[in-house]
Specification:
about 260 residues; three-stranded parallel beta sheet; binds iron/sulfur cluster
Length: about 260
């Protein structure tokens, strides 16, 4: 059974579920309506994956604080990690795989906060399905794309504006809301206060990966490679149905971040 069918089945059984919404959601959904729609669909809890991204950032900062001179390649991108394992296995030793990705960190937080509910990650990424099933089967995370969520809304006849009072996230973290744009980790973690500018490389887009890995391998000055498989970052993930340009998508996320800061 695929993840979408599994989720439909669990919703029909009225199982307890926690929705973990990836930070690219403002590209395709309005807030707070999306939280209300998820609750009407049957999710008991709705949290922002930015809470997990904050933990990921803290772990990256701790790595550099406790490893002076250490070097690492960021591993939150499931597509990139799979590419390295398959095509560049000699580079796997540099991946920061001991550092939980935002999805995994969010699932751990969700399980601590709501131990009776199964975590369901909702985001732009197909490769996250493999990260969940191959690398973290014990966490039992169901992974849906936004496209799949739209189909589930259709299946349960939940429209854009359900007749319910607006509802907010149960757990939220504004500081990491720019995570899905390239450089999101570096820019939201305070890493630039620890490392010099020429010790950091920020890359996105699969075409740029071979040169970035080659440079990291040959230039020991580079200590952190912040890298995402999709062009411009997760905002271009295949699970997003949007005709907006990369710039327009970034603007949508920025608007959500700014709007929240002004509340
Ligand atoms: S950059 Fe693309 S492949 Fe990587 S985690 Fe984001 S959506 Fe998935």
């Amino acid at each position: 059974m695929n993840d979408a069918a599994k989720c439909i089945d669990l919703l029909r059984q009225k199982a307890r579920l926690t929705a973990m919404l990836a930070p690219s959601f403002p590209i395709v959904y309005e807030y707070p309506q999306i939280v209300t729609r998820l609750r009407v669909l049957g999710f008991q809890h709705v949290i922002e994956v930015t809470v997990g991204a904050k933990r990921t950032n803290e772990a990256v900062i701790n790595f550099f604080k406790s490893n002076p001179g250490g070097r690492v390649i960021a591993s939150p991108c499931a597509g990139f990690v799979r590419l390295v394992r398959k095509t560049y296995p000699h580079m796997e030793k540099y991946l920061g795989l001991k550092i939980d990705s935002p999805m995994v960190a969010s699932a751990r937080i969700a399980k601590t906060s709501y131990p009776d509910a199964q975590p369901v990650f909702i985001g732009p990424c197909l490769a996250k399905k493999l990260e969940s099933s191959e690398d973290y089967p014990d966490l039992n995370i169901i992974v849906l794309t936004y496209r799949e969520l739209d189909k589930i809304f259709e299946e349960f006849k939940i429209g854009d504006g359900p007749d319910q009072p607006a509802s907010k996230f149960d757990l939220e973290e504004p500081a990491t809301r720019m995570y899905p744009a390239d450089g999101g980790l570096t820019n939201s973690s305070g890493l630039r206060e620890l490392l010099k500018e020429d010790e950091i490389r920020i890359i996105s887009g699969w075409k740029n990966i071979p040169a970035a890995l080659d440079e990291f391998e040959k230039n020991p000055k580079i200590r952190f490679l912040d890298i995402l498989f999709c062009d411009g970052g997760c905002i271009s993930g295949p699970g997003i149905a949007s005709k907006l340009s990369v710039e327009e998508k970034v603007k949508k996320i920025q608007e959500f971040q700014v709007r929240d800061a002004m509340r």
